[in-house]
Amino acid sequence: MQWKTAEYAGWGRAYRAHGPLARPERLSALAAALAEPGPAIGNRRSYGDAALNDGGAAIEMTRLDRFLGFDAETGTLDVEAGATIGQIAEAFAPRGWLPAAMPGTGFATVGGCIANDVHGKNHHGAGSFGQHVTALTLMTGNGPREVTPEADAALFRATVGGMGQTGPIVSARLRLIPCPGQRVVVEESRVPDLGTFLDRLDGSEATYAVGWIDALARGKHLGRGILEEAELAEGPRPGPEKRAKSVPLDLPGALLSWPVVKAFNARYLRRIPDTGRRSKKQINDFFFPLDAVHDWNRLYGKRGFHQFQCVVPVEARDALREILTRIAKSGLASPLAVIKRMGPGRGGMMSFPMEGYTLAVDMPNRAKAAPLIAALSRMAQEAGGRIYLAKDSVAEPAVVAAMYPELDAWRAEVAKADPEGRYQTDLVRRLQLRSPA
């Protein structure tokens, strides 16, 4: 294994890092790489600076991607941390099993899903990714150490959602869920406004539910969009496997100007008939729709983009309305805006999920984007909610500290696991997560 100096970025491409990267393929190589201080990172699908270590070293875990063992009776999978959610779904859906919680991209690694305690379109029923991890292995200075929620509760909860600060995650034992086939039956319907959207999400009995929102709509149309409700279904994969397209170059910013996005959103909304639409989709098409376009982040041009994602309590509907109103008035929103209903499930001390409504909106990296997102973050905190650190790139330390009540307990556990601060990232330093703000 060799170190290679490289420039790399988070998925939003608004921030970059420069420094040596190692890509170990075996545990022995990983152990050797740990002689150089630096965090373990995956496919860098977090949007901001969570997986960056500018000026320092980092260990990319993507070559440690093997399936280590599978129990077909219980659906228990032992897998290395560099394997992706898409690889697991592709390999095990034909055998009747799927990851219990899947983020919006199949390119997220198992280690990244644990470190960010990701959630999916079924969080209201299934909880977060970390709640389906029955054991994980950390690489320590003394070699691999298995950590379980029963025997090592504090360390386990500091690792799940802990952004890699307790050390490199080598592998994990996952509890998959039964999957009757390779089809997803999706019901799509138009929703006229935010209040109706929240009512529909509250009342949905579907296993999977997610909404697309026209984040530029205002007035009586504020929060209008499309609700998708879905169930896994029997049968083989419908239709031939689709070949992914790609964005070959950074596109000019004018393509995401307010008039263009407004027109696109109106047309996108009209694609659903008044009576709704029912269809059968491939698993990838429903769970990872944007993966069909490789490098879609280049649509935002060389400067990249930010994403604001918050969750607010169920009783904070008015605050969510104010947040969405502020976004709509700014004119910054892109066509990518998502709303979901979340349940109470969370796996770690620093996990994002809480019961309520989560809103995620992409914004081009323009001069007023960062101040707007900082203001939105404060609004979410004042409403009793929080922001998702996997998406953040601009939040303020004091605001984040107020959002996460277990921060001090997490700091104490991380200090025991990494007393020298070897695994800090740009995000951890920016938000002063390992020391009081």
UniProtKB/TrEMBL annotation:
PROSITE patterns in the cross-refs: FAD_PCMH (PS51387)
Output the InterPro entries linked to this UniProt entry. FAD-bd_PCMH (IPR016166), FAD-bd_PCMH-like_sf (IPR036318), FAD-bd_PCMH_sub2 (IPR016169), FAD_lactone_oxidase-like (IPR010031), Oxid_FAD_bind_N (IPR006094)
Q: Which Gene3D superfamilies match?
A: 3.30.465.10
FAD-binding PCMH-type domain location is: 10-179
Name the keywords, alphabetized: FAD, Flavoprotein
Q: Which domain of life is it from?
A: Bacteria
Q: Does the keyword Flavoprotein apply?
A: yes
Name assigned to this protein: Decaprenylphospho-beta-D-ribofuranose 2-oxidase
Species of origin reads: Rhodovulum iodosum
